[in-house]
Amino acid sequence: xxxxxxxxxxxxxxxxxxxxxxxxxxxxxxxxxxxxxxxxxxxxxxxxxxxxxxxxxxxxxxxxxxxxxxxxxxxxxxxxxxxxxxxxxxxxxxxxxxxxxxxxxxxxxxxxxxxxxxxxxxxxxxxxxxxxxxxxxxxxxxxxxxxxxxxxxxxxxxxxxxxxxxxxxxxxxxxxxxxxxxxxxxxxxxxxxxxxxxxxxxxxxxxxxxxxxxxxxxxxxxxxxxxxxxxxxxxxxxxxxxxxxxxxxxxxxxxxxxxxxxxxxxxxxxxxxxxxxxxxxxxxxxxxxxxxxxxxxxxxxxxxxxxxxxxxxxxxxxxxxxxxxxxxxxxxxxxxxxxxxxxxxxxxxxxxxxxxxxxxxxxxxxxxxxxxxxxxxxxxxx
Amino acid sequence: xxxxxxxxxxxxxxxxxxxxxxxxxxxxxxxxxxxxxxxxxxxxxxxxxxxxxxxxxxxxxxxxxxxxxxxxxxxxxxxxxxxxxxxxxxxxxxxxxxxxxxxxxxxxxxxxxxxxxxxxxxxxxxxxxxxxxxxxxxxxxxxxxxxxxxxxxxxxxxxxxxxxxxxxxxxxxxxxxxxxxxxxxxxxxxxxxxxxxxxxxxxxxxxxxxxxxxxxxxxxxxxxxxxxxxxxxxxxxxxxxxxxxxxxxxx
Lengths: 382, 251
Hints:
Structural class of chain A: mainly alpha
Mean pLDDT of chain A: 88
Oligomer: heterodimer
Shape of chain B: globular
Strand content of chain A: under 5%
Number of helices of chain B: 9
Largest sheet of chain A: 4 strands, mixed
Number of strands of chain A: 4
Radius of gyration of chain B: 19 Å
Order of helices and strands of chain A: HHEHEHEEHHHHHHHHHHH
Low-confidence stretches of chain A: none
Mean pLDDT of chain B: 88
Number of domains of chain A: 2
Number of domains of chain B: 2
CATH topology of the largest domain in chain B: Rossmann fold
CATH architecture of the largest domain in chain B: 3-Layer(aba) Sandwich
Order of helices and strands of chain B: EEEHEEHEHHHEHEHEEHH
Helix content of chain A: over 70%
Largest interface: A-B, 22 and 33 residues
Number of strands of chain B: 10
Shape of chain A: elongated
Helix content of chain B: 25-40%
Low-confidence stretches of chain B: none
Distance between the termini of chain A: 28 Å
């Protein structure tokens, strides 16, 4: 590193660490990540528990022994009452759906827009299917037909082939933890980048800086490195806190029972590399965009879209389960989330990792070269 | 010696309906500034003084023409030339989160100062009577104290050339006096000083030669006495108005 670049870096870091806003952006935002991970995990857990809770089904006809036997076997709670009483019970949320009977027609009354009602209705359906099977079996037997030959004409056997890494919740929470880190890095980079460029212009210290015997290249590189270090601190701190909170939810929350949410040492190293690459790219972009603004406010407005651009492509690619290819590995923002997602599920492709790293270096070089050239232009400087 | 040769600076002004108008903020200015000389650059606001001094200070590139320091241009020896320059203007503010000591130490590092940094800071601190607030944060200092720190920043590396753009603008009489005293002392040490102001009386007091500019062009150049004689006026203020053809706000 050149001496003058180092001096600018030293000056910028001193400013970052003395500025309460920069410091809070750098340190407080990652502290929010564990709260988000733990909060989302509890939400998943409570939703899963709700799904396991069958609730009570209302029945508006007299039950025969066989009905009671099937309902007990299926472990279904029920309430027998008149239709009017059952409607009242439904309105009071004491039952989740109810069944009426007229001759051989059974009707299930439920609300598909109500998650509780929609969860319980399949149990009511199961009960009626079992009942139907019983009567079909009884009818066939009474006509001297082997019911098993007719009713069990094909057999269905379910065999689980799910792997630990395919666990929906585990995959979801680890990828979202990574996306939160990405978001924290972006937010953390915008403030010091704005302060170091547009902020200096607004405070009148930029012109002072330009009077010193320092090349524009050293000024830009020093500022860029300070923003990168600040965003890397946020990224690494966010990652460490994510690992701690994943370990916590793994032990305490039922949906992760038996799973190992903590990645392998190799995954941790590659994730750190992705975090560093992302921090370097986002810092370069933030410095470049903020440099073109004359005031702090103007720079912040210009940087607002960057927060979305850095976060949403990755989130969408995760949601639509996009497959990584060489092209994707060099598309900024998309590549970081895709490669993390792959590495997290044990798919390590060295070519993609190298191309992500090299493309990041190329993008940073282009962005910094552009802004160094712009630093000779008075429209940018004054 | 500073040589300014046919320097021009073109700006583009954005008019209504995206119409662009090109104009010269500095239009073909040439002069020389010698050792132990204070040159006053005089003119009203918007005359082109700041743009001219920014180009002379190497923080803005001329559209055409060149600025030479002892025969060298910024393109050839930017870093070496800037080590010999002190640039102070109303726009050159200092870092509020630092103490004067930290600021001066940082400046010495920027200027590659090889000798004992602490000794040099103490020397300047004594000279400008900054000892009482040397370690306080700059944002806690008064305007006068802050201006002294700004002067200390210029002095710290013992420059050969001073470029002072509206250095006393907006300051109280005591702070202005500190700067004017400092300029006179530096001249006696053989330094070259370019001093821009719109206070004509101030320039008359301290400048060896005066260059009056308006709309980016030199109106007249000479000693204050020569200008008064050439324009047949009693002071530089009258000379200026005579040269621009009277008092007109539009002009």
